[in-house]
Amino acid sequence: MSTYLGAIDQGTTSTRFIIFDSTGRIVSVSQKEHEQIYPKPGWVEHDPEEIWRRIHEVMTDAMQQRGIRPKDVAAIGITNQRETTIVWNRKTGVAVYNAIVWQDTRVEDAVAEFAREGGPDRFRKLTGLPLATYFSGLKIRWILNNVPGARELAKAGDLLFGNIDSYLVWKLTGGQSGGVHVTDVTNASRTQLMNLATLSWDKAQLDLFGIPESMMPRIASSSEVYGLAQPAEVKDIPIAGILGDQQAALFGQTCFEPGQAKNTYGTGCFLLMNTGTEPVLSKYGLLTTVGYKLGQNPVRYALEGSVAITGALVQWMRDNLGLIQKSSDIETLARTVKDNGGVYFVPAFSGLFAPYWKSDARGVIAGLTRYANKGHLARAVLEATAYQTREVLEAMELDSGRKLESLRTDGGMVEDDLLMQFQADILNRDVIRPLIKETTALGASYAAGLAVGFYKDLGELRRQWGVDHVWKCHMEEDTRERLYSEWKKAVTRSFGWVEERGLRAGAKAS
């Protein structure tokens, strides 16, 4: 009998392969970073071939570390950075252009073009999403309009589209020699091309964006056997789970009941709440998305608040300014001062996501005086994540009509005790870190395990969730509201920075 489950966690900055035992304990893990490509201001790309190489490397390494054989692994789940868009040739397996990353803002002019008729919420009722640079559909359109020969190849049926999940499944199951072209409902819900009610591609939306339906993967559930892996290191292991990274974290945190929510602190920050079997359309700047779908069971929807830049701001401090040597140094530097010294950092590097959705915003540092030093700046970097989380949480409570008594957290930044304490202080709620912190990969492995009978039911998964640490609010009310008010003031200073759409993009109109 197979003893383990595998999970591919293909993220914005790195790729991991994690092997779990039946209790959710990590048995083996391998991780490798990949290059961040910035061809022009606002453009962010990845090399799909580099990501595919990293997949091979981390799978081989993780399996070899403990001498694990393919027959020891019951199934593999995949979780991935969402909205990052790849278009490749089905005959050669080669991408026609680099992957356009979810943070990329090159389609700003197209967003404005489509918003002229019907406004930014033109497609919200159909797709659950506002018009924004974030989602895959307009990125596909940009590739077809700007890569020489791409539209002709697409019309001939030679091109395939996928978010990272689709690309990896196709490659893993044989590529041009019979690879399975599939996506799950969570990733499909991030394209702005799927009908949120029918869970199918919307023909009128595809036509409006000029995208041939032949490019699109089959939409499947989040937990079923899609095909068998072909690479030697994982030969014939079923690929049996797919969840976009934030939905995977929701599932890994066992938020199976309506009203349960989690916040993932990664490159960006993503707060998701399970809303049950009916979608809740947001009036306060959130996204309506698919939470998960298990086989033939009814779909579960979610509300999501997406913050573009959180952990990425720490990386910026490390790589662009050189103020810290490694990301974990940010807490040490921030602890050299007792407060933020009046400094606020609004990291609108890719515009502002929820609840503002302002693609014309850009990053600002406000409140600087001669008193401010690098410790205050480090503290402002951490506090920015907590303030943005509060904005999203308040919008979620208004949309859902539910008050969150506590917040389950995961992601790399939850190891930062200073941030987690400030988060509890600025929210005035308990902040909970689970025993198993790798909830994104864990959620993908759970979905795969359910599909092949490795796990019996959701109850078995619930019993594995436990608490590692709880942070409680220690801040006075007047201090909390003063800080939050000053943050709000700083946010308004970032609005309207980009005035000439299209000039910044530097490419022909989409």
- Physical arrangement of strands within the biggest beta sheet: 17-18-16-15-21-22-23
Q: Estimate the mean pLDDT confidence.
A: 92
Distance between the ends: 53 Å
Strand content: 15-25%
Unreliable residue runs: 501-510
Helix count from the secondary structure assignment = 16
Q: Choose one word for the global shape.
A: globular
Helical content stands at 25-40%
- Largest sheet entry: 7 strands, mixed
DSSP strand count:
23
Radius of gyration: 22 Å
- Classification by helices and strands: alpha+beta
Walkthrough of the structure:
There is one protein chain. The protein starts with a strand and ends in an 18-residue tail after the last helix. With 510 residues, the protein is an alpha+beta fold. The chain has a seven-stranded mixed β-sheet. It has a six-stranded mixed β-sheet with strand order 3-2-1-5-14-13, with helices on both faces.
Q: What key phrases describe this protein's structure?
A:
alpha+beta, seven-stranded mixed β-sheet, 16 helices, disordered C terminus
Task: Write the topology of this structure.
Elements: E1 4-10, E2 14-20, E3 26-33, E4 45-46, H1 48-65, E5 73-80, E6 85-89, E7 99-100, H2 108-115, H3 124-127, H4 136-146, H5 150-155, E8 159-163, H6 164-172, E9 182-184, H7 185-188, E10 194-195, E11 200-201, H8 203-209, E12 218-220, E13 223-228, E14 238-244, H9 245-252, E15 261-265, E16 269-276, E17 287-292, E18 300-307, H10 311-321, H11 329-334, E19 344-346, E20 364-366, H12 374-400, E21 406-410, H13 417-427, E22 430-434, H14 439-451, H15 458-462, E23 467-471, H16 477-492
